[in-house]
Amino acid sequence: MDTPVRRNLRDWCVDAVVFLFALAFGLAVFSDTLATMDADWKVVLDLVSGLALCLTLWWRRRWPVQLALAAAVISIFSETASGSTLVLVLSVAVYRPLRTTLIVFAANSISLAAYLQVKQQEEPAALAIAAVSLYTAVAGWGLYIRSRRQLLQTLRDRADRAETVARLQAEQGQLRAREEIAREMHDVLGHRLSLLSVHAGALAYRGEDATPKEVAEASEVIRASAHQALQDLREVIGVLRAPVGELPQPTFADLPALVEASQAAGVHVELQQDINGTLPDHIGRTAYRIVQEGLTNAMKHAPGERVAISVVGAPGNGLELEVSNPAPDVRRGEGQGLKGLKERAALVDGRLEHGRTPDGDFRLSAWLPWPS
């Protein structure tokens, strides 16, 4: 049901106005009739039943149909009930569907015909036309109010749904931003910390026979790498404060610098490039991250081994990357870094594979689209 049980201040005011209107309208019609009739029990019944029906208007929201049907019966003999009957027909049209309104309208039309037979009014045809026109106008007004309320409720529901969708999209955007932060932190800090591990391991291994100058140089490299790692961390955390597009992002042109930094850390890296053209920014950034993760894994799982990097591509043919290195005979599962790389490749409609070759090397390969 769409009728409220508890009335607010506005409902109380409306009900009071409706009650006073029905009472005034009914008494006005009754006074005209009383002027042409003698006071007898029929007149008293007309007045009492009409006033009682006026009182029921305070419950018209809860039982509009029942009260309207009761009004149809009472209005057969009570002219005082005419105002209340109009209000109840209006209430049914406002609070109930069209089918119910038509049934109540038909019941009151039959009541009108019975009233004309009981009262024996002069010019019954004119009175019937006037009464039906009044009932039709009241019912039409009630249906208009109902349709307007339904329209407003539909607009509210749409607004609520739009707000819900916007909130869900914002939450999804935040989730994607968190995933981007996680990937950036893993890719950037993982590589820097791997370089730190290599430098610190070399320093610990050669600590006894290293000269003070070599120890100082290694310590300076460790300090510089740690400082750079902090700078990278600040850039990644900057995603929380600025749009991603405003943050400094690596490009494919930074790949030689990445290789040189690994070589400076003592990693034997061989880079072969055969690139014809200029890579799109998002493809070049993805290629950089794949090579970076490959170097990080090589330094972590096979320290001191040679790392071979091959990058070949041209517009229309795509970009092929391969990072391979001798791997120790241990099981290497798919960590978060490799999962993140697969997600990166999938975002640009590429693919990524990894695994051990028949020669015992670990190979990380990827193909990325390069539009012509």
Topology, please?
Layout: H1 9-35, H2 41-55, H3 64-74, H4 82-95, H5 98-119, H6 124-205, H7 212-237, H8 255-264, E1 269-275, H9 281-301, E2 307-314, E3 318-326, H10 336-347, E4 351-356, E5 361-368
Parallel strand pairs: 1-2
Antiparallel strand pairs: 2-3, 3-5, 4-5
Helix pairs in contact: 1-2, 1-4, 3-4, 3-5, 4-5, 4-6, 5-6, 6-7, 6-9, 9-10
Features:
2 domains; single chain; alpha+beta; Heat Shock Protein 90; five-stranded mixed sheet; rod-shaped; 372 residues
Short note summarizing the structure:
Helices cover 65% and strands 10% of the residues. It has 372 residues and is an alpha+beta fold.
Polypeptide structure, described:
This protein is α+β, with helices and mostly antiparallel strands. It is built from 10 helices and 5 strands. The protein has 2 domains: 9-162, no CATH class; 251-372, Heat Shock Protein 90. 65% of the residues lie in helices and 10% in strands.
- State the oligomer: single chain
Radius of gyration: 43 Å
Count of helical stretches: 10
For the sheet with most strands, the description reads: 5 strands, mixed
- How would you state the average pLDDT, rounded? 79
Number of domains: 2
Large-scale geometry: rod-shaped
Distance between the termini: 63 Å
List the strand order in the largest sheet. Answer: 1-2-3-5-4
